[in-house]
């Protein structure tokens, strides 16, 4: 009996260590809070975030990321501008490096509130996004708190890229671009 309890204890300890290592260094799950990413994510959706990518590859325009917020829980947003890009919004169109981008994922109505902006409006010195900073926007632009409100985000605040929506089960998804 004592040997069996020790074996169970060791098994539980190993499982706990594996879970801690995976959640700390590899992947983590997050709950989407609010409607700022509609229609891509709904309030209450659960996602898996890849924390490994940050160590091996650069983030790209269109990537969905989770990042730490100074104002509360982490945010889920879409990267629109990466270091070296010029970005502006005019008449509901976002221009990256002078070209309008095709944003089929954006949710808005004809009378939606949309802020036109330039990088200068967001507090950027110069015409390009600085190194290690990113411009992020929500897909539901009228409701989203994003770079239009709090400026660019620093790379060190990024937790990782969203790789999988696992909840609700009937909407499990792996590709968000």
Automatic annotation (TrEMBL):
Record's function text: Essential for cell viability.
Ranges for domain Peptidase S26: 5-167
Name of the gene: lepB
Reaction catalyzed: Cleavage of hydrophobic, N-terminal signal or leader sequences from secreted and periplasmic proteins
The protein's name: Signal peptidase I
Localization: Cell membrane; Membrane
Membrane topology field: Single-pass type II membrane protein
A Gene Ontology term for the protein's cellular component: plasma membrane
E.C. code: 3.4.21.89
Keywords: Hydrolase, Membrane, Protease, Transmembrane, Transmembrane helix
First-level EC class: hydrolase
TM region(s), chain numbering: 6-27
Family: Belongs to the peptidase S26 family.
Organism expressing this protein natively: Aliicoccus persicus
GO biological process, any: signal peptide processing
Gene Ontology MF terms: serine-type endopeptidase activity; signal peptidase activity
Active site annotation, chain numbering: 36, 77
């Amino acid at each position: 009996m004592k040997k069996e309890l020790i074996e169970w204890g060791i098994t539980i300890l190993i499982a706990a260590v594996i879970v801690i290592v995976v959640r700390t260094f590899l992947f983590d799950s997050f709950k989407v809070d609010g409607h700022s990413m509609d229609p891509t994510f709904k309030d209450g959706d659960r996602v898996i975030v890849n924390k490994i990518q940050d160590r091996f590859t650069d983030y790209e325009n269109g990537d969905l990321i989770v990042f730490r917020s100074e104002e509360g829980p982490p945010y889920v947003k879409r990267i629109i501008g990466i270091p070296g890009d010029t970005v502006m919004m005019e008449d509901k169109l976002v221009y990256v490096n002078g070209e309008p981008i095709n944003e089929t994922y954006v949710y808005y109505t004809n009378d939606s509130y949309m802020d036109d902006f330039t990088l200068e409006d967001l507090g950027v010195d110069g015409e390009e996004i600085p190194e290690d900073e990113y411009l992020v926007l929500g897909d539901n632009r009228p409701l989203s708190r994003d770079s239009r409100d709090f400026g660019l985000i620093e790379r060190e605040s990024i937790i990782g890229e969203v790789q999988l929506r696992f909840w609700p089960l009937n909407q499990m998804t792996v590709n968000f671009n």
